TrEMBL record, chain A:
Species of origin: Variibacter gotjawalensis
Family of the protein in this entry: Belongs to the CmpA/NrtA family.
Organism lineage: Bacteria, Pseudomonadati, Pseudomonadota, Alphaproteobacteria, Hyphomicrobiales
InterPro entries per UniProt: NrtA/CpmA_ABC-bd_dom (IPR044527), TAT_signal (IPR006311)
Name recorded for this polypeptide: Bicarbonate transport ATP-binding protein CmpC
Molecular-function GO terms, alphabetical: ATP binding; hydrolase activity
First-listed, main subcellular location of the protein, grouped into a coarse class: membrane
Entry annotated with the keyword Plastid: no
UniProt key word Nucleotide-binding: yes
From TrEMBL, chain B:
Compartments in which it is found: Cell inner membrane; Cell membrane
Family under the similarity heading: Belongs to the binding-protein-dependent transport system permease family.
Membrane-spanning intervals of the chain: 6-27, 97-119, 153-171, 191-210, 217-239, 245-264
Annotated signal sequence range: none
GO biological process: alkanesulfonate transmembrane transport; monoatomic ion transport
Gene this chain is encoded by: cmpB_3
InterPro entries (UniProt xref): MetI-like, MetI-like_sf, NtrB
UniProt keyword Transport, yes or no: yes
ABC transmembrane type-1 domain ranges (all copies): 88-268
The protein's name: Bicarbonate transport system permease protein CmpB
Originating species: Variibacter gotjawalensis
Main location class: membrane
An example molecular function term from Gene Ontology annotations: nitrate transmembrane transporter activity
């Protein structure tokens, strides 16, 4: 379920499989078929209320079954009234919607890497979402993840687009000194792909990939963990049987053309660009590894969050608004046109459009239609953080005993709801976890070590 | 050089250029329609895949792009999309500032080292260690300590252009002919007067040679530094176009960098000619 769905609808499932009405295979399909019938007009207040209410309801009913049973027996209106007794949803929403006071700083700088994962951060500028919340935001294209990290630490940027594992790595001090980081919103879900060189178009079975040279954009990235996971599930040891290198995205296409690498798991538009230029084909979408996996993140230092709470709330609201807009399929073409120019992604419009609409050439002569090839859902599930931490430990990036839940909580939800709720004198939810399935295997965030031990291929702890 | 020879040299240069452009043009010609594609599919693909257009741009593509940049060199479409003229102005500004700082530091210290054998010996080990460090190796450290990317780029320009000037100044000062210094001493010329009226004019050609080497290095470094920190400048332009895999624009940028580098070098060459010291 998306954060923008109504949690007070008894027919809605909070899990990813199937759709809310149960008639369709996926939520995307459901959305497509229902689009023609009616598009509910959703007011802003309603949207904020839903984001807050989602968090509350998830806390009260961690089990989906009990939530649905409860809603079915008493009805949504009664449920809302009952919940409001314990938790003034209205008041919390008001605080969230209006902010607590004047903005501490109006003109902000937000850094981004020119990939479609940054869509909400980027589009909020040309489409006026920042302006709507009284902010003058300059979105600044940045040369690489390390530079984004340094410029955010330097306070040249007030907030930035990051890979979702990066705030975790920063907080635990992997690869640098520990700096308290918060990740209030996931930028995008899905939206990556494994692209292979044209010469491998008949070698689609990963078991035959021994000796491949593959590229990922950064060591601490979902790309790295998803590729390693995918390979290991097919019996390929990602450290012994293949070479995985960190390569900046534009160099991936050039290296693929020059035959220096066999393929990559990369963010878009890189995959689509390789197809567009005729040098590669899309082997699988990352959605086929873990449907609705998080990828990039919107991150800010703890200092910015604590010293400028109102500005931060306005910024976060702009991102949530933009994300809600980007979730709708019918807006995607317009978004592609807004973010393709030189100022933002600097790519041909048709490449960006293929990524966002999910109607794309796969490089093998077929036009594929996958509407949720990339989707947007800002809710930072703490269980995502726990999964990422298990993979960091699995591949030896972090060692020893880890307080999975503690770190996840500190980084992934430390701010938005938690802070805004505390401000109005409420007790914020303690956990925001859900189970999910990665390549057919269910991940239970309560038992990270068991999950880790279930893998045949891993590095010794 | 006799006039006839100048003309002949020009003719050979032109012939080389024409030959180069012809080979380039022939090598990058497209192959025509490559494969039969479903029209819906073909619409989603680029010209390389559908028309067999070469991945490398030809000379005409580059000329068209250059013309486009020349028509509006100073447009400004927000923080990430500025005209080539503005980008160049940023780069030249950074190089100018870093280089000026280097001149202010290198020439006095160079004088000191050149005039005092003691200081020369004392500072030599530091100079020898710092001189061979690649300017870009300073970048992470600069970014981390200075905490400002633009200032870091200027610092990197400074640190890389300081050494050739320093060493050349020291060498020039140290090798001023002893007789002249002795004459000055006999005439009881004070230290400062001696430095400005005897040593400076005599060492000036060597100092300017050092400055000329330094400006070349500074211009080499700024492109790499801006590719790393991004934001503005010709180096950022190259990175941004590379991101888009627009090789045409990358070639345009390379040509521009070459032309500007040549102009900077010629300016210092002219300065060098004006300070030549007739013995």
């Amino acid at each position: 379920m998306s954060t923008f769905d109504d949690p007070f609808d008894a027919n809605r499932r909070l899990r990813a499989e199937g759709c809310s009405c149960g008639l369709h295979a996926s939520e995307a399909e459901h959305r497509r078929s229902s689009q023609l019938q009616c598009v509910p007009v959703e007011s802003e207040e309603k949207r904020y209320e839903q984001v807050v209410a989602s968090a509350v309801l998830r806390k009260i009913f961690p089990q989906d079954k009990s939530r649905r049973a409860f809603l079915q027996s008493v009805g949504a209106a009664t449920a809302l009234a009952a919940v409001s007794q314990f938790f003034p949803v209205g008041a919390a929403t008001e605080v969230f919607a209006q902010g607590a006071g004047a903005l501490e700083k109006k003109s902000l700088k937000v850094g981004f890497i020119p990939i479609t994962c940054a869509t909400p951060i980027i589009m909020a500028e040309p489409m006026g979402f920042y302006k709507k919340h009284g902010l003058e935001v300059e979105v600044i294209k940045t040369a690489g993840w390390a530079v984004i990290r340094d410029k955010t630490i330097n306070k040249e940027y007030d907030a930035a687009h990051m890979l979702s594992p990066m705030p975790l790595a920063l907080t635990v001090g992997a690869g640098s000194n520990p700096i308290p980081y918060t990740m209030p919103a996931v930028e995008n879900i899905n939206g990556q792909a494994i692209t292979l060189a044209m010469k491998h178009k008949d070698r689609r079975d990963p078991k035959s990939w021994k000796g491949f040279k593959l590229a990922v954009p950064f060591d601490y990235s979902m790309h790295n963990y998803l590729l390693r996971y995918y390979l290991a599930e097919h019996g390929i040891d990602p450290d012994a049987d293949v070479q995985i290198r960190a390569v900046p995205p534009p160099e991936m296409v050039a290296n693929l053309r020059a035959d220096n690498i066999d393929g990559f798991l990369a963010p878009d538009p890189v995959n689509q660009r390789a197809v567009y230029d005729g040098v590669g084909f899309i082997h699988i979408l990352s959605k086929q590894i873990w449907d609705r996996h998080p990828c990039c993140a919107f991150a800010a230092s703890k200092e910015f969050v604590t010293t400028m709470p109102n500005t931060y709330a306005a910024l976060l609201k702009s991102i949530i608004d933009a994300t809600a807009f980007a979730t709708k399929q019918e807006n995607r073409k317009q978004i592609a046109e807004a973010i393709a120019p030189a100022n933002y992604l600097n790519q041909p419009v048709t490449v960006v459009e293929q990524v966002l609409t999910g109607v794309f050439a796969d490089g093998l002569g077929t036009v594929q239609r996958v509407p949720d090839r990339i989707d947007f859902d800002p809710f930072p599930w703490e269980s995502f953080a726990v999964w990422i931490l298990t993979q960091m430990k699995r591949w030896g990036q972090i060692k020893g005993d880890i307080d999975y839940a503690g770190i996840a909580k500190q980084v992934f939800l430390a701010t938005d709801t938690t802070k805004l709720m505390t401000e109005v004198g409420l007790t914020p939810p303690k956990e925001t976890m859900k189970t999910f399935v990665v390549m057919g295997k269910t991940f239970d965030p309560a038992k990270p070590e068991d999950y880790l031990n279930s893998f045949a291929i891993k590095r010794p702890a | 050089m006799p006039t006839a020879q100048t003309w002949r040299a020009a003719a050979i240069s032109l012939a080389i250029l024409v030959a180069f452009l012809s080979v380039w043009h022939l090598a990058t010609r497209g192959t025509g329609v490559t494969a039969n594609m479903d029209p819906e599919y073909a619409k989603l693909m680029g010209q390389t895949a559908t028309q067999g257009k070469s991945a490398m741009p030809g000379p005409f593509d580059v000329a068209t792009t250059i013309w486009g940049h020349l028509k509006s060199p100073f447009y400004d479409n927000g923080p990430n999309d500025k005209g080539l003229g503005i980008q160049l102005a940023y780069s030249i500004g950074r190089v100018g500032l870093g280089y000026l700082l280097a001149v202010l530091v290198a020439i006095p210290i160079g004088f000191l080292i050149g005039m005092s054998p003691l200081m020369s010996r004392a500072l030599d080990p530091f100079i020898q260690v710092l001189k061979p460090i690649s300017p870009l190796a300073w970048m992470p450290l600069a970014l981390y300590t200075i905490k400002d990317s633009s200032a870091s780029a200027i610092f990197v320009i400074f640190i890389c252009s300081v050494w050739p000037m320093l060493l050349n100044t020291a060498f020039g000062v140290a090798s001023v002919r002893k007789e002249w210094l002795n004459v000055a001493r006999t005439l009881e010329v004070g230290t400062f007067r001696r430095a400005f009226t005897v040593i400076l004019p005599a060492a000036a050609p060597t100092i300017v040679t050092g400055m000329r080497i330094s400006i070349g290095i500074a211009w080499l470094v700024i492109v790499a530094a801006e590719m790393l920190v991004g934001g503005t400048g010709i180096g950022y332009f190259v990175w941004n176009q590379w991101n888009n895999l627009s090789i045409t624009n990358v070639i345009v940028a390379i040509l521009t960098i070459g032309v500007v580098g040549m102009i900077l070098d010629q300016m210092l060459a002219a300065l060098g000619r004006s300070v030549t010291y007739p013995e």
